[in-house]
Amino acid sequence: MVRIAKLTIDSAQLDNYKAMLKEHAEVAVRVEPGVITLYAVYDKAKPTNVTVFEIYANQAAYLSHLQTPHFKKYKTGTKDMVKSLELVEVTPIALESKRK
Hints:
Number of helices: 3
Strand order of the largest sheet: 2-3-1-4
Strand content: 25-35%
Shape: globular
Number of strands: 4
Oligomer: single chain
Order of helices and strands: EHEEHHE
Radius of gyration: 13 Å
CATH architecture: 2-Layer Sandwich
């Protein structure tokens, strides 16, 4: 399952948001076997525009992710920072990467 999340963040809270997102992504990838990838970037020209590229092993892994304590901490902690959120379901064409 592949999804793109497009967010707009309150500029006054951007640094706090980025720290919370970074912590959440690191924990999710480390402890959840079904979370394959969480890449988060922001637009250089509009730093409040954040995009998260998410890959899960399957729908069940995604639904399980939503119930984890770290996801709930992230959602609760950032709810007043996020001005807008668009979730886009996508179908992969090519997902290639070099391993570390």
